[in-house]
Design a protein that fits this description.
Number of helices: 10
Helix content: over 70%
Structural class: mainly alpha
Distance between the termini: 44 Å
Order of helices and strands: HHHHHHHHHH
């Protein structure tokens, strides 16, 4: 795992790539970081201390990327945060804000990332319900209902039972 092997100093240097004004450089970095988590099938907290360090070192940075001007960056950051599954008290409110993103892809990935936090994202239930009501397509509604089911199965069942979508 190349990113872990270079250590925290190297990871911090690579972080500079993600603040580059160059869209391709930024996308390449965040995609590489996400790939490291997916390649290992990592869920956090990880038993691999070095890999857990990758998530911990980059958590504030990843949260900041949720506000990037490039929608793909926002979506990739949300996906990584869902995989990292750390500090729900900090991450969940930021992912909730992504439910109002102007880009469908970012909204859907944000909802999915909230679902990754499971019951730790209960504060997102009202926002997810509202998002389902305002979703513009079946795919967006289905993704959000799935996230709601992962967070609060009872609330999801109640919503589905009382609403036609």
């Amino acid at each position: 795992m190349a990113l872990v092997r270079i250590g925290p100093a190297g990871l911090c240097a690579l972080t500079n790539a993600a603040v580059s004004p160059n869209r391709e450089v930024k996308l390449a970095f965040v995609t590489a970081l996400l790939g490291q988590f997916k390649m290992r099938g990592v869920t956090f907290p990880a038993h691999d201390e070095e890999l857990a360090l990758v998530g911990a070192v980059h958590l504030p940075f990843l949260i900041n990327l949720l506000h990037d001007r490039i929608p793909e960056i926002r979506a990739l950051a949300a996906e990584v945060l869902g995989a990292v599954h750390e500090k729900p008290e900090l991450v969940v409110p930021e992912l909730e804000r992504l439910l109002n993103d102007p880009e469908l892809f970012a909204r859907s990935v944000g909802a999915d990332a909230l679902g990754e936090y499971g019951t730790e994202a209960k504060s997102a239930v009202p926002g997810l319900v509202e998002h389902i009501k305002q979703a513009k397509g079946a795919s967006e509604k289905e993704t959000t209902i799935k996230a709601l089911q992962e967070i609060d199965a009872e609330a999801a069942a109640q919503f589905v039972q009382t609403n036609s979508y």
